[in-house]
Amino acid sequence: MTLGLGETSDPALFGGNWRAAFMRLPIPVFIHNSAGNCLAVNARFTELTGFTAEDIPDLRAWAARVRRVPEDEIPELLRVARERYAGSSAPQREITVYHRDGARMIWLVNETGQVETAPGEMAIVSFAVDITAQRSAEEAAARRQREVDAIYAASPLGLAMFDRDFRVVRINDALAEINGAAAGDHIGRCIFDIVPDLRAQAEPILRRVLDTGEAVNDIAFSGETAKAPGERRDWLEHFHPVRAETGEVVGVGVICEEVTARRAAERRLSAVMAELSRTLHLFRVALRAADVTAFAMDRERRFIWVSEGSWGRPAEEIVGLRDEDIFPESRWSVAVPIKDKVLAEGGQQTFDVSTEISGRRVVLQIRIEAVRDENEAIFGLVGASIDITERKAHEAHVESLMRELSHRSKNLLAVIQGLARHSARRSASLPDFLAGFVKRLDSLAQAQDLLTNTNWQGVNIADLIESQLGYYDAGERARLFIDGPPIQLSARAVQNLGMALHELSTNAVKYGALSAPGGRVDLTWGVDGAGQADSTFWMRWIESGGPPVTTPGHRGFGHVVTQDLAARALLGKVTLDFSPQGLRWSLVAPTSSVVDRDAPGLGNHA
Question: Cβ(447)–Cβ(498) under 8 Å?
Answer without folding.
Answer: yes
